[in-house]
Amino acid sequence: MPTTTSSVWSLDNPIRTGAPLAGNTRYDVGVIGGGIAGLTTAYLLACEGKSVVVLDAKPAVAGGETEFTTAHLAWVIDDRFARVALIRGDETARLAAKSHLTAIDLIEEIIKRENIACDFRRTDGYLFPGTDGNDIIRDEVVTLTRLGLIFERVDHVPFPAVATGPALRFPDNGQFHPLKYLSDIAGLIRKKGGVIHTDTQVVKVENGSPCVAHTKLGHTVTAGAIVIATNTPFDAGPSLHFKLAAYVTYAIALEVPAGHVSPALFWDTEDPYHYVRTAHGTDAEFLIVGGEDHKTGQAQDQQERWERLEAWARKRFPESGPARHHWSGQVFETPDGLGLIGRAPGFRDNLYVITGDSGMGMTHGTLGARLVSDLILGRTNEFAGVYSPSRWMPGALKTLLEENANLAAQYGDWLTGGEVKSASEIPNGHGAIIRHGLSKSAVYKDDKGQVHEMSAVCPHLGGIVQWNPGEKSWDCPCHGSRFSCKGDVQHGPAVEGLKAIEKT
Ligand SMILES: Cc1cc2nc3c(=O)[nH]c(=O)nc-3n(C[C@H](O)[C@H](O)[C@H](O)COP(=O)(O)OP(=O)(O)OC[C@H]3O[C@@H](n4cnc5c(N)ncnc54)[C@H](O)[C@@H]3O)c2cc1C
């Protein structure tokens, strides 16, 4: 495995970058965040003649979690239909399936209309049993049959080496190269009169009519509507954070002989589950395998997790070659397994959010873009109630309470000791938490031995960050904010970096 992490999709394309915002401007719609959710929203609204601007904190759009995806385009709900139907009822479970199917259709329609070369193809999806998974498969069959969704029972998945027992085949899923797709979408936004500013972090949004987005450098965008598509919202009311739980998920890409594995999506019934697909690289075909999820900031065995994924893959695909890429990223789970898309809670009439991807952010971001665009355009959308961010989740109360108990427990880190007593115990290239009296420092020692000391307190809501040795980042276990080894924000909801501690 290479020593540093990299996504299999990394793609340098100047079309992904735009000049930073350098003044005060006015548009019909401001979109904050240029991942699949934000770019698709801007594209759809630009197609309707709206003037749109996309503001993204990173140097290039599609450089957030979208760059770290495995890009299954699935309509089969990750949390499984039996659970969604139990919590939200049959009609909502049926609509959830339809919404993700519609999202795959929309991606295909855009690709055909705009002639985008992004390796898109329709594929089957297979759910196969992991250890003790046969009961799960049986339950799912009962629900799928009751809901009238299209599936087929098969004796085993089409793996070359391992027949894992009865599985379910779902038609009409898909796969693509997300960065090729979104690079073209960025170009199309501009072609239709839209504007993209990168290196432009937004730190505050004022709701109203119009709304105003304020950037870190003191500029503003005034717009009739603002869409916060920043993966997890940094300024859309505190209530949303009680419904969002941040998880890290891992992926590896192994070289495989061309045509060795059927182009299909595979995932098993384990918790966390494994997911598999193939993809064309520039010089090889890859088997992409993901899984090993855990709550953000609550594990430090990243290397072992990638190794377990590799061992799992080699057992089932023994002809696999070297692991050329390994990486990780975040997904945001909701208590009922469905996203939070629509008007921000708390009477913020012109402020919209797309969040809570529930591990299905490619389709979720796309259906979120369609839904939010419809709301802005004053159109009805049959999925609005399914995804309303203000919805109550009585059926998911147990999960909601468990996740929030876990969140509360993280604040106990204020009382524990440090991981090491002094920086001299930290090897070069690593970080650790050190306690100084009542406070805690996040201390990183770079490859040359220089020590960088910061407050360990997450500026979002005061969690104590944890060192992530796999990605060399500081991760907050409370709401999923992530910071570089030197404390810069890499992922919200925090909008400020870790506070540097000057040594006197
Ligand atoms: C390893 C892995 C595998 C996955 N596999 C799949 C899969 O197979 N299928 C699937 O459907 N989903 C998958 N997902 C989930 C999916 O990749 C994500 O949910 C999706 O990419 C999120 O898109 P987004 O547009 O919401 O967020 P992002 O892509 O993260 O975009 C948000 C953007 O907002 C910007 N931003 C953040 N804060 C600010 C701010 N304050 N001001 C300005 N800009 C800001 C960021 O720079 C970023 O560019 C996977 C995720 C991971 C990590």
From TrEMBL:
Pfam families for the chain: DAO, Rieske
Lineage top rank: taxon: Bacteria
An example Gene Ontology CC term for this record: cytoplasm
Gene Ontology MF annotations: 2 iron, 2 sulfur cluster binding; metal ion binding
Domain named Rieske: residues: 418-504
Keyword terms, alphabetized: 2Fe-2S, Disulfide bond, Iron, Iron-sulfur, Metal-binding
PROSITE patterns for the chain: RIESKE (PS51296)
PANTHER family to which the protein is assigned, alphabetical: FAD DEPENDENT OXIDOREDUCTASE DOMAIN-CONTAINING PROTEIN (PTHR13847:SF281), SARCOSINE DEHYDROGENASE-RELATED (PTHR13847)
Protein name, entry field: Rieske domain-containing protein
